[in-house]
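Lab meeting, item 3. Inverse folding demo.
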């Protein structure tokens, strides 16, 4: 597995900019739309569960579970962007992730932030 299997984030050519900061240098906020989020819950694959159990005995990274978490975070981001776009936003400020166990059957990942309309400063 290469480094690209463990990355994430938005498409650099997306029409919705997502940042973890309170503002975007060179842009001003024209309108605050409000909180948006993308949520997904994923169960663990049986094969990765067995592999994780064996790997935990000898130590090391659980690559199958890592890849599943990356895919889950990316899906939550896609849903966040879809919601911001649907509400008329072109950016999400202060984006964060929240990750929790979902009733011992999977992992819940929520990407959330503030949808806004930004414009480049003149």
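The presenter then showed the designed sequence:
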């Amino acid at each position: 597995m290469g480094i690209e299997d463990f990355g994430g984030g938005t498409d650099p050519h997306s029409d919705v900019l997502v940042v973890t900061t309170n503002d975007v240098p060179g842009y001003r906020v024209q309108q605050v739309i409000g909180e948006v989020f993308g949520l997904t819950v994923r169960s663990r694959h049986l094969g990765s569960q067995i592999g994780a159990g064996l790997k935990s005995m000898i130590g090391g990274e659980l690559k199958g579970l890592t890849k599943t978490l990356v895919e889950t975070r990316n899906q939550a981001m896609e849903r966040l962007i879809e919601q911001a776009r649907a509400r008329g936003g072109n950016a999400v400020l202060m984006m964060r992730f929240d990750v929790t166990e979902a009733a011992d059957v999977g992992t819940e990942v929520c990407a959330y932030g503030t949808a806004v309309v930004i414009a480049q400063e003149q």
